[in-house]
Amino acid sequence: MTVYGRVSWPPEAPKWTFLWELVDGDTEAIAFRDVYFKGIKVLHKASLPMIRVHYDSGAGPYKDQLGIGNMRVPVKVYEHVQSGHRHLVVESYHVISRYHIVNRWFFRDDGLIQPQLHSAGLQHNATHQHHVYWRFDFDIGGASNNLPLEHDPGQTTNWGYGPGWRPIRGEEAFWFWNRSWAVINKQSGLGYLLNRGEFDGKSDSFGRIEGAAVAYRASEDLKGRLGSRFDDEIYQHVTGESVDGKDVVLWYVAHLQHIYHGPEFEWHVCGPLLWPLRY
Length: 279
Ligand SMILES: [Cu+2]
Known about the structure:
Helix content: under 10%
Number of domains: 1
CATH superfamily: Copper amine oxidase, catalytic domain
Largest sheet: 9 strands, antiparallel
CATH topology: Beta-galactosidase, Chain A, domain 5
Distance between the termini: 36 Å
CATH architecture: Distorted Sandwich
Radius of gyration: 18 Å
Shape: globular
Bound molecules: copper (II) ion
Strand content: over 45%
Number of helices: 0
């Protein structure tokens, strides 16, 4: 089964156009396809193939996927106004045993994309971490000639992209939480900047990476088949292949810490901010 919809928003003068779909089987939550902002391509696909949950008590670990089967109400698409900005929101609501999860994506009128994963409920009465894996298959102005970069705020060297911005030439995993990443088109200079969200935490021995930059390969687009409850297995895609001037896939991982204080039903949120550059 598949549910999907086409978006062209705002209707009177569209800035965002894309297709969203939710496919059963190897589900990767809502997948956004062919995302354009102001008529220029941003993403071939953006999705959330996997959540891994690790309990300090030793229960689990778990690997969860958001799909039609655990969705409680149909996907909602609506407009939301906040802080003087209009947003188009696409969201799905899921229940997996005792977890309640909202997968909510904001597309703001100025180009900001904000995927948010909200969770509430406890599977076990213990502190745990939700490791949330987003996959961004960028096509900045098209699939070719893209380049990923990493920003280190402690670094002043200028490699030609601004102080501290290091071009990533070959596939690599991201090990440091205090960084930002970007993907640009080498010819046009357009791009998207990815900043960590306020509650996105730090990697640990269970969820070891903050993300990765890899070259697009159809065989590596595993959707919900990615990884296991014990390991994300993204390292298998990091083989040193060139990503300079290629079709770039950026993985981003949030590590949402959920400290147990007693029985509760509190919502926790995580997710990055993706800002347009020169769009
Ligand atoms: Cu939790």
